[in-house]
Design goal:
4-stranded antiparallel β-sheet, globular, 201 residues
């Protein structure tokens, strides 16, 4: 909800939009939502894209999300959230599935040098700073924060060694929910360097 969710201004309705149907179904499972999933079309920079959308009403959940720091029209104003430390990496995994990315490549400057990065993205500088500071407080991993060229998004980025430290706790619990395509991308890259994600999944 902090990444792809939306709180209506009516104080009751919530919505969630994602290009991944799996993400939407995970949300329905978590909150036992019976509403139907619809499909919407958006044209972004001249390219037509289709997204899955779920909208439902839940006054108690709406109030809870307000209490922990979410607000209507949150994209640019989102700051720190009241996430207990014991649940922070469950939250971070959902944040990564919604607004994060993982990319890898062979560095042409050095033979057999395989690089990869873990990246969390937010339109809100306050939220990006909170993510970075909380990860540093809990793991001692600092990361690097940058802004994209257009100045519209902030990136909290972790290189190879630090990425491994975060991934080790991001996927360590059994029976966790995660976006399959992103986890598969990570596993494929880690196999190249002889690493693997925790076996508890």
């Amino acid at each position: 909800m902090a990444s792809d969710g939306n709180l209506s201004s009516d104080g009751r309705h919530l919505a969630f939009v994602s290009k991944d149907l799996e993400q939407v179904e995970h949300l329905r499972q978590c909150f036992d939502i019976t509403a139907n999933v619809s499909k919407t079309r958006q044209v972004i920079l001249g390219t037509e894209r289709f997204y899955y959308r779920l909208q439902w009403g839940d006054i108690r959940l709406y109030a809870f999300l307000l209490d922990i720091g979410l607000t209507p029209k949150k994209s640019l104003t989102l700051g720190s959230l009241k996430i207990p430390d014991e649940f922070f990496f469950d939250f971070l995994r959902g944040s990564f599935d919604g607004d994060g990315c993982f990319y890898s490549y062979f560095d042409p400057r050095w033979k057999n040098s395989f690089m990869f990065y873990l990246d969390f993205v937010s339109a809100s500088e306050r939220h990006a700073l909170w993510l970075r500071s909380t990860i540093e407080r809990l793991l001692g991993i600092q990361g690097h924060m940058t802004r994209n060229r257009a100045g519209t998004f902030f990136h909290v980025r972790y290189a190879k060694k630090d990425s491994l430290g975060i991934l080790a706790v991001l996927y360590e619990k059994q029976s966790t929910l995660f976006l399959s395509r992103k986890k598969l991308k990570i596993e494929t890259a880690l196999r190249i360097v002889g690493k693997s994600l925790p076996q508890g999944i």
